[in-house]
Amino acid sequence: MKINFTTETIDRKLYEKSILTYIYDHYLFNDYRRLVEQDKWEVNIRTLKDFNWNFYDKNIKNLSKKMPHGVTGDNVVDCYVTDESNRMYYLQNMMVICHELSHMILKLYYPDSRGMLDHDDTWGKAGDVRNYFSTEIHNRVARGQTRKFTAWHEREYYFYGIDIDDITNKRNLNNGI
Predict the structure, then answer these.
(1) In what order do the strands lie in the sheet with 2-5?
(2) CB contact at 8 A, 92 and 21
């Protein structure tokens, strides 16, 4: 897997270690097939100014151009973050990065499954049926299902990400929904 940066200020090694900590926490060491599939992905960490705001539908409201966000596509994760080295920005940025990485991880586990959105969000209404790797993450965000992770880079750093352990190989050895 390739991790690219267009940022200038953030500590790239810290972010790389944090990204890999989150990703590899969700695979068993012998889950070779998913490790190979995940290796085809590219993660891009970009500055907020790199985002093309024409990407969003004109009807979408309440999106701040100063707030980190991301987009997960086919074999690519694009995260737009605040390019500051401050610890609080790291926490905020990692929350967004983990959100997008969780979409990627569930896309590897459940590429064709469908799920129902439990609540209204920017992209849909409660009851909408969409890709499971999308709806499940958004449902968990709405329910506040996050977990603390720890990355080591000269010292201990912690961050929070979506808790998907119960639906990945880490705990769910039968690999079903």
Answers:
(1) 2-5, 42-47, 76-81, 69-72
(2) no
Coil vs helix vs strand at 60: coil
Q: What's the farthest any 2 CA atoms get from each other in the chain?
A: 46
Q: Tokens 């920017």 — which residue?
A: 122
- CA separation for the pair 27, 63 (Å, rounded): 33
What is the token pair recorded at 145? 């299902």
The domain locations on the chain are 2-167
Listed residue (55, 143, 47) closest to 93, CA to CA: 47
Cβ atoms within 10 A of the Cβ of 142, count? 14
CB 69 within 8 A of CB 63: yes
In terms of Cβ atoms closer than 10 Å to its own Cβ (0-12, 13-18, 19+), residue 18 is buried
CA–CA separation, 90 vs 160, rounded Å? 10
Give 4-59 pLDDT, tens digit per residue: 999 999 999 999 999 999 998 888 767 778 888 888 999 999 999 887 665 555 56
Query: Is residue 165 within 8 Å of residue 99, measured between CB atoms?
Result: no
